[in-house]
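sorry for the late reply, my laptop died twice this morning and i had to redo everyting from scratch. anyway the thing you sent over, i finally got around to it. pasting the sequence first so we're on the same page, its 266 residues, then the predicted structure underneath. double check i copied it right bc i was rushing
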Amino acid sequence: MIRVANAPVSYGAFEQTVGVLPNVPDAAVVLDAIAAAGYEGTELGPPGYFGTGGHLRDALEQRGLRLAGAFVELDFPGSLEPLETTLDAIARYGAQPILCDCGPRDGDIDLDGVARAVELARSRGFEPTFHHHMGTRVQTPREIERLLEGTDVALLLDTGHLTAAGGDPVQALRDWGDRIEHVHLKDVSLEVIGRAADWDEAWRNGAFCELGAGDVDLRGFFDALGGYDGWIVVEQDWFPGDGGDPAAHIEAQRCNRRWLREHVGL
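ok and here's the structure:
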C-alpha cells in the first residue's frame, strides 16, 4: 500500500536553517500544515526539531501522523554517531533510516563505510535506504550504479535529484526497481538549474517546484511505478531567504497533495 507523506524541508526546516535563520516556521506550524493538507505522515527533519521522546510521540499522535523516515548525513568513512542518534530517535516508530553522503563531490564514496552504516542499522532492527543526492559522491546514475553494485543497501529514489543529475526516474524504476524501498517525489526546473552558476545557487533559487510545474515526467513515473509498496514523500526543498514567507510554501504543499489526488488518485 502506498502512503503519502511530506517533510519539514518543504517548509524550510532542515539542518542548515533550524536555529540559524529567523523565518523558519515552528515545528507545530509545520506539523499542523502537513496534517491539514492531508498527508499521512512526515519525515523527522533535524534531530529534535519535532521534539524527542514523549513530546515527539504526542505531537504526531495528536495530528494522526506517522513517521515515515529519518534523514541522516554521514561522511563515508567516518563516525557513525549521527546514525546512532537517529536510530535512538526513531526506535519506537518503525520509520526507515535514510542514509546520505554529506559530500562534497571529491571522489568516490567509500563503499565499506556504507556497509558499516548498513550493518549498524540492521543490528538495531532497521533496514536502511540510501538517498542519492546532488552535491554528494552519489549523485549521477553511474555513481548510483556503483553503490548498488558494491553494497546491498536499498535505494531511496528521488525524482528531482535524479533528474537534476541528468538521470531519468522512469528508467530508474526499470533498472533499479527491485532495490527501491523509499521514494522522494519532487519536481525540478531545469531552466532554473541552467541559469545558475552551480547546484547550490540553483537549489537556493527554487530549482524544486510544485508537482507538475517542472521537467520530471511524473505521469510516466507513476505509470511505471508498478507494485511499489511503501512511502512516497513529497518534497519541495525551500531555503528561506530574507523576507521569505512560509505561508506561500504551506500553500504549495496543499497544492502538491491536491495534484496527487487529481492526477494519480493518491
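The two ends are 11 Å apart (CA to CA).
thats about all i looked at so far, will dig more tmrw
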